[in-house]
Design goal:
This protein is α+β, with helices and mostly antiparallel strands and about 110 residues long. Helix content is about 20%, strand content about 20%. The chain is built from four helices and four strands, in the order βαββαβαα. The longest helix is centred in the last third of the chain and has 9 residues.
């Protein structure tokens, strides 16, 4: 398993043209793990007439290479490559996910 230090993260959704209805897939197209680390998801914009095509970063496949940030067409890149501790949150230990607990109980001892 590869040790990752950095992770891509879209940090500005309000200023990003994809969230305003203009299509941009540059980060998706330059990603070496295209279709795995970055995918394009279609969402309705609320008026029922148009769709938004939103790049989504999948952390388990992102290598943190930074090609997406370098290729971003915005004046200031809306996708940043951050240290993992800044890019990802971590739930507190006392919060348990029932479905994970159930899977652990099913494992043979």
């Amino acid at each position: 398993m590869m040790l990752k230090w950095d992770l891509a993260r879209i940090v500005d959704t309000q200023g990003y043209i994809a969230y305003q209805g203009l299509r941009c897939e540059v980060c998706f197209n330059v990603c070496p793990a295209q279709g795995k680390a970055i995918t394009i998801e279609m969402k309705h914009n609320g008026n029922g007439k148009h769709a938004l095509f939103i790049p989504m970063v999948h952390y388990n496949s992102c290598t943190g290479c930074g090609k997406c940030k370098q290729a971003c067409i915005m004046e200031e890149a809306v996708i940043k490559v951050l240290p993992i501790k800044l890019a990802m949150g971590k739930r507190q230990e006392h919060y348990k996910l029932g479905w994970e607990e159930e899977e652990i109980r099913k494992l043979p001892s």
